Each structure stands twice: as structure tokens, then as C-alpha cells.
Amino acid sequence: MKLTTKLMAFSAIVSASSASAVELEVMHWWTSGGEAAAVTKFAEAWDATGNTWVDGAIAGGGDTARPIMVSRIIGGDPPAAFQFNHGRQAEELIEAGLLLDLTDVAEAEGWAEIVNPSNLLDACTVDGRIYCAPVNIHSWQWMWLSNGAYEKAGIPVPQSWTEFAATAGDLEAAGITPLAMGGQSWQQNGAFDVMSAALVGIDSWLAVNRDKNADVVLGADYARVFEAFGAARELSAGLNVQDWNQATAAVINDTAGAQIMGDWAQGEFALAGEIAGEDYSCLPGLGEIAVLSTGGDAFYFPVVDDAEITAAQKELAALFLSPPVQVSFNSAKGSLPIRGDVDLTTVNECTQKGLDLLAAGDLLPDVNALLSPDTKTQLNDLMTEFWNTPSMTPAEVQSAYADIIADAD
Amino acid sequence: MALSEATDAGRAGPTKKPTRLFKNMASKIAAVPMVFTALVIFVGGTVWTIVYSFTSSGLLPRLKWVGLDQYERLWNSRKWLVSIENLAIYGICSLILTLVIGFTLAALLDRKVRGEGALRTIFLYPFALSFIVTGLIWQWILNPDLGLQSVVRGMGWESFTFDPLNNASLVMFGLLIAGLWQGTGLIMCIMLAGLRGIDEDIWKAARVDGIGTVKTYIRVIIPMMRPVFVTSLVLIGSGIVKLYDLVVAQTSGGPGLSSQVPAMYVMTSMFGGQNLGQGFAASTMMLVSVVIILVPWAILEFGGKKRG
Model-level pTM? Predict the structure, then answer.
């Protein structure tokens, strides 16, 4: 009884003292070690303003988290803010008028001047209005190579995909699987996407993914990519792993030569205590055409019927892009900041390559910003079938790929 | 006298219908919430799903009619065809094997073996685990680097290969092993209860007539256990159609598309692809196939109930 009264008194004090602050529930799917540490930076910065960050983490990745977020928004119980990959995932929610227009914040904070590259902000813009706050840049266009594996095979680390494919036989002779590839469809389609941008060049890649030109898919340039991807199937035989980080682990352990994966893989190398340039090498754009795709995460804010919360949502949006938060968050997460006027605390050789490309403007829009989730799912299915069906020829998959692109919206 | 006659006449006359309606009032009132749930949630939800399967709904449902486009795309999709084929393989094997293994185990336990209680618990235990846990356990057991294959190789048989989950033509059987491990225990218990319900005298009569044990089981006992088999069939059948979580946990549909199932197709198109219309079309087809199988069977089984 006494304890209950004490607790009640205590909770009364707590609620009284927090009455002036606004509680915002923020939903996201950052649950791995490095990711959780990065979210804490946001939470600390928000709590320091006198408000309260209510963490709504959902384990299981974006495909698990997005339906939960969407059902809460449609069901009339929206969180104050939620993470999406910016691009076309939130398109319909914006059209339905469920998300807060952040244009006034963007204008007051001058996002148009500070966000670099500017296409990140374009991905947040619908009909001239801005609906999301981009927080980081992640790029798919990387190949990670194990220096140890090449040392074992007695050959120098290749500097391009062509060299890699030519020397794959030497790795196999040394008992090393040349290419580590996880079993999930998004990894296989993602790798194909990286290979196509690197092997056919930016213009053709944009013609297919942005302009949905199926004739380019059927052309001779793309035929080369399908051939190369088909040949790569044999390079991964013998390594049966599902998750991307298991495939990265094979590169870290020197049992596999290389992996095509986004820059989030660098977190795994760092966690294993490997040093860029010494233990592993990285090739942006597979060493053929060095470009960086500019995907990443962004926060969206559902419309709520409470002026106080709306004001707090806008305050939070501005905070996400403020220089100190950008530095602390991206340093913890291993991603690149979305503004060009800040410096990260720790930069290794590979991150530096990324920053150089960013500064030089050798950039591609992220595929999530160009293709609808529906089209992407179809491509994932097609490419995983191709990867796992040795009897399927590059010509077959080429025409099926062209059909999907022709139907894409 | 006259009064009671009048009441009798009244009861037999126009009030007859209401009496039947209001009979067992309490139980009817108690059933109202369930009837309401069934009508609104199940029937209403089903009709809603079917209606929206003719629209181009994306992330949000919207009434933009596209006719049979979603169905056309569905039946042109190789993934959907593979899913159906996989479900058919899994379904037929699972149905037959669960019944056979379940009944055999029950019959063996029924022979009054020692430690029946312990054995029954052991067989039933996997059923207490969710499909997700079952899938993960078997993913590890069937993993060539951690599980069965490495154990057997460690014992000296170096060339032993057992890697169904990474082999497109065997992967459904890898799933089947896990499904059977999880599900047969329950069927065994139901069968065992059925066997215990058989009168001792039947066995005595069979023994007097000199009929062998196996023959008694097949010719006498199984036909007598018809209701038990029907219950088991319904349980197994519903488990097959909704097969989803086991696949997600064990293979997530791979390698490639080789262990995709219809329920997974529905989930990926609705939530991964943000294409509700396509998901609704697929789930409507699942419903149609269940109805095609179920309705004639239900009419045969329950329609002619008059025979007593």
C-alpha cells in the first residue's frame, strides 16, 4: 500500500515535470549494434531540447517494419515520426494527404542549399512540396575484397570487375570461393543493379531505370551484363549463406574473395577489427565506372490534429539535419552525412573514396527513388530465379527483364 | 377448462413459429457475438477482399477498377505457378505421411507399451513450438556446415551429403521433414484418443474369430474411427493451406523461387511490393481452390446426415 502511494506520487511528479515537454514516438528498424548506437545519438539530441524521444524500434528490417508503420498510420494511430528509405515507398501516403508538409521548415533552414547531393531532397519532394527529412546516404555501388584471400592465392588484389573475373580461377584453385553472395533475392538483384551501372555506364542505366526504356535492356550493352551476371553464378558455388552479413563474414574470414554489397557492409569489417586497405579493399562502381548511388534513410512525419505536436515534429525535422547531429549520427552508423559542410570524426580509406565521389558529383540516384516497390519486387524475383537456376540462359532473363521494365509505372 | 383449451389452441396456432425462434433464448443470445464476428469479419472481410482484387490498389486500397488485370498478371507469374506446385507437393505428401505416421505411432502406443506417458509427451512436444521456432531448428539441423551433414562427416563418413535446403529440387522435402516433425504428434494424440474409444469387446470378438492384429486395425478399427480421421483431415488441411511461417523461417522462399508458397506470394505482393490488388487476387485464388475442394466434400460428408 505504501509502495503504491509512493509510486503514484512519483509518477505524478514525473508527469507534472514533463507536462511542458512534448513526447514524440519515433518508429524505425535500426536494431543492429551500430544502428542502435546511431539512433541513441538522435534520442540524446532530442531529449537535450527538453522534449522526450519515445523509441519505437521494430526488429526484422524494413520489409517487416514498413507494413506495421503503414497500418498504424492508416488505422488512425500514427507515430510522430517514422523512418523510410526515401523514394517511392511513401508515395501513396503523401498522395492520400497523410504526411506532414515540411516545406516551411525546409525553407527556414535552407535545406535546398545545404543538402548535398540535391537529388536526396528531390526524393522527398512531391509536386514541389517537401515531405521528408533525409538523414544519411548509403550507397550500393561497392565491391569488397579480401586482401588475405588474394595473398593466399598468390595474386594481387584486382582493381576492377574485369580483373576479378579473369583471376577467379586462381582463387578457386586455392580453395577459395571467388564471390560471396547471400541467398536472399534483394541481394542478387542488388548485385545485378551494381554490375549494370558499372558495366554499361550511367546513361544506359538511367534510360532503363528512370525512363523505363525496355529497348535499352534488349540492346547489346545490357546483353553483356546479363552474360557477366550469368557467369558470376558459378563463382559463388559452394558457399551457401542467406544473410548479407554472413556473406560479408566469408570475405572477412578469407574464405571468399569478394562481395558486391552496399557500404553498410563496412560496419561488419569495422566490427571484426579489419582495416581498410590492409585487410580488405573496396572498389566503388566495381572499379569500372566509379559512381555512388545516393540511397539512404529519411524521416516522415504523419499529420496529427494537435498544433503542439505538429510544432514539435517540425522542430525534430530541423534537428535531424543540424550539423552536430549529422556528425554524431553518421559517425556511429558508418553512413555519409547529407550535408557537404560537415566533417565526420572517423574517416577510413573507403569512406574517403566515397566522400571524394560525393564531392566530385559522380552520383546516381538510388534505385528506390526510380522504381516502384512493385517493380522492384518483380525484378528481385526474376534475378533470384536466374541466379539459382543454372539452366536459365542470359537471353531468357534479358527478355523477361525487358517485359518488367516495359510494364513498370 | 375453456381457458386451458384456449391456451392450447393458441400455442398450436399462429404462435408456433415464434416459439421455435425463441427456444433456448440464452444460448442464442450467447451465440450472437460469434455469429456477428463470423458475418462481419469473415464473410465481410472476404467479400471486401474479392471486390478489391478487381482494383489497382497499391499501398492503400482504392476503388480504381482494372477488371481481371490482377488475375491475368497472377497467372502469368512464374512465381505463382511455382508456389502452387510447391503447395501441391507439400500438401499431398504432408497429408498422407501425417496420417500414416500419426496412426502408426498411435497404434504402437495403444499396444500398451511401457512408458506410454513419456513417449506421448515426447511425440507431442514439438507441437508446442511455433512454426517459426520449428523452422529455425530445422534450418540449423539441415545446415550442411553445422547440422546433420557435418555430424555424420565428423564420424568418419567423409562423402556423406545431405543438404536439402540448398538444393532446388529437394527443398520442399526439407520443409516437409520439419512440418511432419511438428505436426504428427498432435494427430497421433487424436488417433490415440480414437483408439481408446473403441470398445474392448471388438478386440475380443476379433480375437475369437482369429483375425490378426494388423488386419483388425485395417479392416475393423480404421472404419470405426471415421470421425477421428475427419477431424485430423480438417486440421492437417488447414495447416497446409496456411503454410507460411515455416517457409519464412527455414528458407524464406529460396533457393531462388524454389520453395515459394501461395501465402508467401500474398504477403510479398501486399507488403513488399505495395500492391494490395495483386495480393488480394492471389488470396482470392487461394480461397477459390479451398472452396472447390471443400464444398463437394462437405456436402458428401455432412449433407446426407439423415442416414443417422
Answer: 0.82
